[in-house]
Design brief:
The chain has one domain. The protein is about 45% helix and about 0% strand. It has two helices and no strands.
């Protein structure tokens, strides 16, 4: 599962997601986070225009 959020707008986004998963009885073994660079965002925007 990939969960994307804006940390400037929704500081509790990941916490709420993890709480909802636990409440639903969904367990996981690993959690990986990444932060997009400005270059990543630019490349995505440019490639989406085609």
């Amino acid at each position: 599962m990939i969960y994307t959020y804006d940390e400037q707008v929704d500081r509790a986004g990941v916490t709420a997601l993890l709480q909802d998963l636990a409440a639903a009885g969904i367990r996981f073994k690993d959690l990986q986070t990444t932060q997009s660079s400005l270059e990543d965002i630019f490349v995505t925007l440019v490639s989406d225009r085609k």
